Amino acid sequence: MEGTTQLSNLVYLLPLLAIIFIVAAGVLMLNLHFQKNLFHQKLMQEEIISNHQKELLRSSIQVQEDERKRIAVDLHDELGAVLSIARMHLVALEQQTRIPEECIGSLKDIRELTETSISSIRRISHELMPQNLQMFGLLETLQHIVSTANNSNGINIRLNCDDKLESLPWSVSLGLYRICLELINNTIKHAQAKHINISIRLDGRQLTLFYVDDGIGITEKELKNGLGQKNIQARAISIGATVNMGNNETGGFYAMLKLPDITII
Amino acid sequence: MKIYVLLSHIPVLVSILYAAFSFHKLGRHIRIFCSFLLLSGLVQLVSLVLWFKQVNNLPLLHFYVPLGLACLTFFYHSILKSIINRYILWGLLCLFMLFSIINTLFIQPINTYNSYALTVESILIVIYSLSSFIFMLNSIPGGVNAKAIKSLNWINSGLFIYYTSSLLIFYFGSILAVHSAPAIARYAWAMHAFFSVTMYVFFTIGLWKEQHN
Prior knowledge:
The structure holds two protein chains of two kinds. Chain A is built from eight helices and five strands, in the order H-H-H-H-H-E-H-E-E-H-H-E-E. By secondary structure, chain A is α+β, with helices and mostly antiparallel strands. In chain A, strand 4 (242-247) and strand 5 (253-259) form a beta hairpin. In chain A, helix 2 runs antiparallel to helix 3 (101-128), helix 2 (13-95) crosses helix 8 and helix 5 (138-152) packs parallel to helix 6. The model of chain A has no long low-confidence stretch (mean pLDDT 85). Chain B is 82% helix and 0% strand.
């Protein structure tokens, strides 16, 4: 009797199998749909986190620049002014006839030390906040740096820039200036290079900076962990640019910075 | 008939050959899964040869079922180890092995269709695959990148759809062979072949996705 019931149940087996297959396929479709939604949500979350990190980096660099500017102004206007007055008094003292003979040499030494301090303060404050950049713009500042480096370091730098660079926003000019300075310093300090080529091109709203030297290149470790490289990356991110660095076919170092969407003033 | 049987083995062959040629490029989880593919390929090949020689190939199934579950337990353990205690998975496998041996020795002899073991195996695999779906919807398994999830998902989907759809065929397998009308049995096994082909197509897509993500 039981066997007969099982046999009659077998008639329903085939449609049941088809139904189970369709249900299973439905479960898979639903799962696929959920997976897709989740994937999009995760992508969006990652994008939000990445944007937030970029924003944090941008504001931290902005704070750093503001602080540099404040220190530069304080050094130049306050400490520099005080030392200039001190120097003026020392010059006046030196010119007095009643000064004992044994003090004249010491007075001269103090005056020279004061003058050295004044020039150091001027140099430091200019390095902290490049006045040339504020007054003359990126192009002339870079040309000035290049001519100074060409005269003193036994290195030849060729600068090839677009005239439209003067119309860049201040944050971009400052970022590019700092990046160029870091790259040149790295080459002079570590690369044993004889030549550097810097090219900055503005094509529509896209800016491209290409830097290459003929030195000994950079190791993988330095590229990943070097403080200078991290600074360059951070600066690039803060202005919305991407930067690729490495060694070219001849073994020298290269850096390619791309700023895809720039607002020209 | 012979041509249909041969045709149904093509996707099996394709997925196994693809796995063999791309084995060195596959991730850890998929490599573990390849052990199941290799086993099932070997069993299918031997059973095909025996079928052509008109020799009973059912004894193979008594070895294939526990060994297949062992391979798949390794695979699911690699995915689910962070949510399911490994002793549960290994404990279930040991219990199943014991049941399978008892079933072969005392309930369904080696020359007959081991429907009970197959049914239990299917239920366990459906539970594992559903757990994996839920787990992969909530988080990414350790040591797997987000993109590799796609290929694991395809393989898991193949296992799910095959074992869910074939569960009733496995359960009624021995009755179908003996008591049912030949037409019903033929249609049922044709549907089983279709589910099997679907599973191996899913495996091939999963392996392809693993390399092209």
